[in-house]
Hints:
Blueprint: H1 5-18, H2 32-44, H3 47-58, E1 64-72, E2 89-91, E3 94-104, E4 109-116
Antiparallel strand pairs: 1-3, 2-3, 3-4
Helix pairs in contact: 1-2
Amino acid sequence: ARVDDRRVINSIFYVLRTGSPWRDLPSRYGPHTTVYNRFNRWAKAGVWVRVFEALSASSPGSMHLIDSSIIRATSTPPVEKGGPDHAIGRSRGGLSTKINAVVDENGLPVRLMLTAGQAHD
């Protein structure tokens, strides 16, 4: 029996929202392989592009995109406990800072934010 599309969409949103691997999908959403395969099939068929185009056409100005770049931090003296947050964190490559940018549909910046290098988007 085919798994309900609504359940699959909720499953996909769960994975995208939490950043968890497909295999860690809670059992209430059904088999992770079904969700993963449906997500890929829809991506290859252009379903997600059509959904985003329809949503952005019905609500102009609502589309925002996020991107980030990791910058290696230079050696700095230790920060005092309780001191200012310099958005420097330890990641695989050493000390780094992540620059996050949210832009509108025209690529114009809406918000810039610095986070520690190990922070997830």
